Amino acid sequence: MNSPGQQWQAIRLRLERAEEHLNEIESLVGAFAAQEPFRLQEARDAQTGEWVYALELALSPSDKIPVVVGDFLHNVRSALNYLLIGMLPTTKHHRSLQYPISLKDPFGRDPATRRYLDRDPRVRRPWRILKSELQPGAYKIVWEFQPFSAGIRPGEVNMLAMLGQLSNADKHRRLAVVSQGLEDPGWVIKTGDREAIRTVGGRVAPPGKEFLRLTQRASMRLTGSPLVILRAKEAGGGEPAQDIRIGALRDLLLFVRGVLVEILVGYIQ
Questions:
Q1: Which of 163, 55, 28 is nearest to 99 (CA)?
Q2: CB 102 within 8 Å of CB 123
Q3: Which of 77, 117, 131, 232 has its CB 3.0 to 4.6 Å from that of 169, i.e. a possible disulfide?
Q4: Contact, 73 vs 80, CB < 8 A?
Q5: pTM, 2 dp
Q6: In angstroms, rounded to a whole number, what is the distance separating the alpha carbons of residues 20 and 259?
Q7: Residue 135: exposed, middle, or buried by beta-carbon count in 10 A (0-12, 13-18, 19+)?
Q8: Buried b or exposed e, range 160-199, using 16+ CB within 10 angstroms
Q9: Which H or E run includes 173?
Q10: Are 80 and 256 in contact (CB under 8 A)?
Q11: C-alpha Rg value of the chain to the nearest Å
């Protein structure tokens, strides 16, 4: 069994490796944006005579991005597993346990029947082990940071829930990276020697939909940032469970390193 210092070193190295992967992801996304992947499609409305412009996605994000995202997720998950192992007093359960991520209360009961809402006893087994093995303070923190316990408001993203969702999608090869549109879109219209700049802040212009109408045909170029998202596909080709901005990976790493590890590292034995 590693000493507390050795266990902390293993955690730190995993997080440093995750940071390297994250830097590579951001570099790949930046290279995609630099290619100006969106173009304007031009057509004339036969009824009004107006010129109608829509976005066209001419290039897709690199196929390498989801691979590196998978490496990033693996290292973040491994750091949390090392953290949990370091807090257990013996090696008895090291192979059978990983840092828990529970979307629902494993001990939740039906108010009428008092039966467990989740009938599968396997969802409660790791929590019972942790209850008996972890120091009370450590168990309380691990429990209170669970997605079901954290009290997520509408529109919020729970970092642990996101980690679990993306990790599962990556494990089953259902993780995709797509560009959903142009964020804070705008256009520059050139007339003679002059340029007129227009922006539409606070929105995303999706490809294939009308972006702009003009009474006269114009020479223009787009402005804005391509919105790159992670899409965790549902098994069986169903609708995506959730689209997550790729920038949220930075928030995830900061949460794991600056919150969970920072709080729990003192419980490593």
A1: 163
A2: yes
A3: 232
A4: no
A5: 0.89
A6: 20
A7: middle
A8: bbbbbbbbbbbeeebbbbbbbbbbebbbebeeeeeeeeee
A9: none
A10: yes
A11: 24
> Do the Cβ atoms of 205 and 226 come closer than 8 Å?
no
Backbone angles phi, psi at 188, to 5 degrees: -120, 115
How far is the C-alpha of 260 from the C-alpha of 254, rounded, in Å?
Answer: 9
pLDDT in tens, 64-115: 999 999 999 999 999 999 999 999 988 787 888 999 999 999 999 999 999 9
Query: Which of left, alpha, beta for 60 (phi over 0: left; psi -120 to 50: alpha)?
Result: beta
Compute the Cα dihedral for 82, 87, 90, 93 and give only its sign.
negative
> What Å distances lie between residue 193 and 190, 199, 230, CA to CA?
7, 20, 41
Q: How confident is the model at residue 190 (pLDDT cuts 50, 70, 90)?
A: confident
Question: What's the rounded Cα separation, in Å, for the pair 165 and 176?
Answer: 13
Residue 40: in which H helix or E strand, if any?
Answer: strand 38-44
Across-strand partners of 182?
A: 205, 226
Rounded-to-integer distance, Cα 174 and Cα 170, Å: 6
